[in-house]
């Protein structure tokens, strides 16, 4: 099978794929989709970047299209578990893109943001719930959702779940699911703990295994430059002024960081554009067109926004920030050296990013050539947006109040653990648990000005 229209998918999904510019499935998609469409359980040995998001989301959307019905309040028909908020967000965006003509109701649940918008989303019931384990368990413990109506379950990046300490939570969640369900299970590796759970969840799966993405890294000329965080701006400008730089793609970890980099480059006399989730579709298209034409040959992008960029002649990929997920590094550098062309990938590594670099080297099984020594001494902490906008609150003893997460945990905690926002469907509310539902815990919820209820609403319905 070489085309999506040969995989047995519903017509609305094929139309969405055509609009996204996809006609030929990747190896994992070609193997997994036909089996999953037929209702077979799937065990996939594949890393991020092999196309596995479409491999599991397209059959799930096909199932919803073929069997349309409204999810009961506080339930979901499909549960997708992801280890980090970044991966969960990418999956959510893909589900909505592929399902644009089916319009499933979706919710995105991860930690680090207020819970109430997520609870309201789940109170209506949703077709697809994408969640990280920690916040999912928080809502389950509060009886804000239940899993007894799950028809299909996807466990993505199982080995990352194990590495991040989520395995006890995963086993608890698995025990709450119905015995009869469609299950898809994906992991880059298969250590004993994961193999044991896979055997319990998947008695007779179709096994799919594809080539690791690490081979991409072997085709690109890579190097890293060690520097302090405040030295990155000058190094970036020097790199972009160097000989042989044609089109350059610069990656930022955040949307605000991307805008800041563009502003700094313009102050340094370099023409650049930005593409990220806060930009309108028109702004994205204009920035991409200027990048293709060469009028603004530097494009600063976040990972999610960059997924749709397919431009020939990218000579340099510069990672201003290293990604939290090592596979993302490989996806980034794959934007250059396409079709046999030469290309260079440069990563600017601050002292607090060295651990991320080591994770990349472990994944790719090669040491990236480095320039400069790792700076020593204390690493200054960057203030978050709220700290920049207002002075810290203090109690009577002069102690700083913990901010960021319900329960008083500090907001500087690394991302990706305990889940985050919800994408709220526009359905009318139904019944709930009635007398069985417990009141929410009596603890004050932080008012985070950086998030609004509208950030969690799913405009799909």
UniProtKB/TrEMBL annotation:
Sorted alphabetically, which Gene3D superfamilies does this protein's record hold? P-loop containing nucleotide triphosphate hydrolases
Basic and acidic residues bias located where? 437-461
InterPro entries on file? DEAD/DEAH_box_helicase_dom, DEAD/DEAH_RhlB, DEAD_box_RNA_helicase, Helicase_ATP-bd, Helicase_C-like, P-loop_NTPase, RNA_helicase_DEAD_Q_motif
Region feature (Disordered): 367-461
Q: Where is the composition biased (Gly residues)?
A: 405-420
Q: Which residues form the DEAD-box RNA helicase Q domain?
A: 2-30
User: Single GO molecular-function term?
Assistant: ATP binding
In the UniProt record, the signal sequence range is: none
Q: Which PROSITE patterns match?
A: HELICASE_ATP_BIND_1, HELICASE_CTER, Q_MOTIF
Q: Which UniProt keywords apply?
A: ATP-binding, Helicase, Hydrolase, Nucleotide-binding
Q: Which residues form the Helicase ATP-binding domain?
A: 33-208
GO CC terms on record?
A: cytosol
| Motif extent (Q motif) | 2-30
Domain Helicase C-terminal intervals: 219-382
A Pfam family that this protein carries is Helicase_C
To which protein family does this belong? Belongs to the DEAD box helicase family.
Show the PANTHER family listed in the entry. ATP-DEPENDENT RNA HELICASE RHLE, ATP-DEPENDENT RNA HELICASE RHLE-RELATED
The protein in question is named: ATP-dependent RNA helicase RhlE
């Amino acid at each position: 099978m070489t085309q999506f229209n040969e995989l047995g998918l519903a017509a609305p999904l094929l139309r969405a794929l055509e609009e996204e510019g996809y006609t030929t499935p990747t190896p994992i998609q070609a193997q997994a989709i036909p089996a999953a469409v037929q209702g077979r359980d799937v065990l996939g040995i594949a890393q991020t970047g092999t196309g596995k998001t479409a491999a599991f989301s397209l059959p799930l959307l096909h199932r919803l299209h073929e069997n349309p019905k409204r999810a009961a309040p506080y339930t979901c028909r499909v549960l997708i578990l992801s280890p980090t908020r970044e991966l969960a967000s990418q999956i959510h965006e893909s589900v909505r893109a592929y399902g644009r003509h089916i319009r499933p109701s979706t919710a995105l649940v991860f930690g680090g943001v207020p819970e109430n918008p997520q609870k309201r989303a789940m109170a209506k019931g949703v077709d697809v719930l994408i969640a990280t384990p920690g916040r999912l368990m928080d809502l389950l413990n509060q009886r804000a959702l239940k899993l007894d109506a799950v028809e299909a379950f996807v466990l993505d990046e199982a080995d990352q779940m194990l590495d991040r300490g989520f395995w006890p939570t995963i086993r608890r969640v698995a025990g709450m699911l119905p015995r009869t369900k469609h299950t898809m299970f994906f992991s880059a590796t298969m250590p004993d703990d994961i193999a044991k759970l896979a055997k319990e969840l998947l008695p007779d799966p179709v096994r799919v295994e594809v080539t690791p993405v690490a081979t991409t890294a072997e085709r690109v000329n890579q190097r890293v430059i060690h520097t302090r965080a405040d030295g990155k701006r000058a190094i970036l400008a020097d790199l972009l002024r160097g000989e042989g730089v044609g089109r350059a793609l610069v990656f930022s970890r955040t949307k605000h960081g991307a805008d800041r980099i563009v502003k700094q480059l313009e102050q340094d006399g370099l023409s650049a554009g930005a593409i990220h989730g806060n930009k309108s579709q028109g702004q994205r298209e204009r920035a991409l067109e200027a990048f293709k034409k060469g009028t603004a040959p530097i494009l600063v992008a976040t990972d999610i926004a960059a997924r749709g960029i397919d431009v020939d002649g990218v000579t340099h990929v510069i990672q201003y920030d290293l990604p939290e997920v090592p596979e993302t590094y490989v996806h980034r550098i794959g934007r250059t050296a396409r079709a046999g062309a030469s290309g260079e990938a440069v990563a600017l590594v601050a002292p607090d990013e060295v651990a991320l670099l080591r994770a990349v080297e472990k994944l790719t099984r090669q040491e990236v050539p480095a320039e400069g020594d790792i700076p020593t001494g204390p690493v200054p902490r960057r203030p978050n947006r709220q700290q920049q906008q207002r002075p810290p609150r203090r109690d009577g003893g002069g102690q700083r109040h913990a901010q960021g997460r319900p329960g008083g945990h500090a907001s500087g905690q690394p991302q990706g653990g305990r889940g985050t926002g919800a994408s709220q469907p526009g359905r009318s509310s139904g019944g709930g648990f009635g007398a069985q539902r417990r009141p929410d815990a009596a603890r004050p919820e932080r008012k985070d000005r950086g998030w609004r209820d509208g950030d969690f609403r799913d405009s799909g319905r």
